[in-house]
Design brief:
With 385 residues, this protein is an alpha+beta fold. 45% of the residues lie in helices and 21% in strands. The protein has three domains: 174 residues, 2-Layer Sandwich (Beta-Lactamase); 113 residues, Beta-Lactamase (2-Layer Sandwich); 78 residues, Orthogonal Bundle (Arc Repressor Mutant, subunit A), CATH 1.10.10.10. The radius of gyration is 24 Å and the shape is elongated.
């Protein structure tokens, strides 16, 4: 390499190892990588080899909504990602050099509906490391004007991979060491509701007793390789996207709306999952994560409408309605069960929204799930005046 390329490589290495302790993680590194190589976009993610759902996103030049559609729909059709799964790890491969049938890539739905609308013409990718079924991958994008990837460029990128592997491993170790203290893990056991704590790449770093019991049942949700897995691939992708959005919202400094996901169960009421961004006090690096509350309406702590009424200054009817909504019932089901007109129930729901400062059912559920009515242990609920 000439002196200019060597200096650029050394600067990249410095930024890469800085990411081990940086509050932004690998964000500064992928931004510098894009500038150095003339890239349109860079995505670093952790991905499941079989389900192809993604967690732990660092994005540069890629809009989050494109990654959402990739995680939920198009990721399974990514020909380059499929090639990576069969190729040796630790090496970069390019769409214009290594796919064998480049024309097939341009003819795919994935290219027409996901790649091309972003103004992307060429991609390169690498599996940086593999842990069980989970792959740490990086994807690089170029526009038509930026031109295709060259074999010499891939060789330069390959030289970065061993350093990238060490940096990822070092950061993961530090995340694991600090997560218990910095992300309030010890306090979760005092919470009655099943609760999970996730680190910045979507791994479960702590769960309380209620969550352990729910996960041990294994019928709807399970802990596999420290990841939360649902009964179906589609449900798993939705849950992982919810976790990633919560972590990224805090890392990127913007507010995230209350995220509610209903996980369907055959012949039973659905589980309600609420995920919140979480970051501890101070500016230490390992304090981004997500907190998930898992509400099972069939085995939830006993909560009376009277307690909800006192907590939120509601009428008796509004309090009963709030508990029913939080239990997963629709306005139609509530109306049918109580012999009321659906229009009457919807009018009462609007009054309930106004009193609680919410605007939709998901926000109301989030408010109730985070309140002492469902949130704290029974002894604390009993002590409320």
């Amino acid at each position: 390499m000439n002196d200019q390329v060597t200096q650029a490589f050394d600067r990249l290495l410095g930024t890469l190892y800085d990411a081990v302790l940086a509050p932004e993680g690998f964000q500064p590194f992928i931004r510098q990588l894009a500038e150095c190589l003339g890239l349109k976009g860079v995505c670093l993610l952790v991905r499941h080899a079989e389900g192809r759902d993604a967690t732990g996103l660092w994005l540069h030049g890629v809009e989050p909504h494109w990654m959402e559609s990739y995680a939920l729909t198009y990721g399974r059709e990514d020909i380059l990602a499929a090639h990576l799964e069969q190729a040796p790890i630790g090496q970069f491969y390019a769409s214009n050099l290594d796919l064998g049938e480049p024309g097939r890539f341009g003819e795919s739905r994935f290219y027409r509906e996901w790649v091309q609308p972003q103004g992307v013409a060429f991609a390169a990718a690498c599996v940086v490391m593999r842990e069980g079924a989970w792959l740490t991958q990086v994807f690089l994008q170029r526009s038509p004007a930026q031109g295709p990837f060259l074999r010499e460029e891939l060789a330069q990128l390959d030289r970065l991979v061993p350093h990238w592997q060490r940096a990822v491993q070092m950061r993961q170790r530090l995340v694991g060491l600090r997560a218990g203290q910095d992300l309030l893990a010890a306090s979760l056991d005092a919470i009655a509701m099943p609760t999970l704590l996730f680190d910045e790449v979507g791994r479960i770093v702590h769960h309380n007793r209620g969550a352990a019991a729910l996960l041990d049942a294994g019928a709807t949700l399970a802990r596999v390789d420290d990841r939360l897995m649902a009964a179906t691939p589609a449900a798993t992708r939705t849950v992982h996207l919810q976790i990633s959005n919560a972590v990224r919202a805090h890392r990127e400094g913007h507010a995230a709306a209350t995220s509610i996901v209903l996980v369907e169960r055959a012949g039973r009421l659905p589980l309600t999952l609420m995920t919140l961004p979480l970051r501890g006090a101070g500016d230490q690096a390992m304090r981004s994560g997500a907190l998930m509350f898992m509400f099972d309406p069939e085995s939830a702590p006993v909560v009376t409408a009277d307690l909800v009424r006192r907590l939120f200054d509601l009428s008796a009817i509004e309090a009963e309605l709030a508990v029913a909504l939080c239990g997963g019932q629709s306005p139609e089901e509530i109306a049918n069960e109580r012999g009321r007109a659906v229009s009457t129930v919807r009018s009462q729901i609007r009054s309930l929204f106004a009193k609680t400062g919410t605007h939709r059912q998901a926000d109301l559920i989030g408010l109730l799930l985070a309140s002492p009515a469902y949130f704290v242990a029974k002894a604390h609920r009993d002590a409320l005046p």
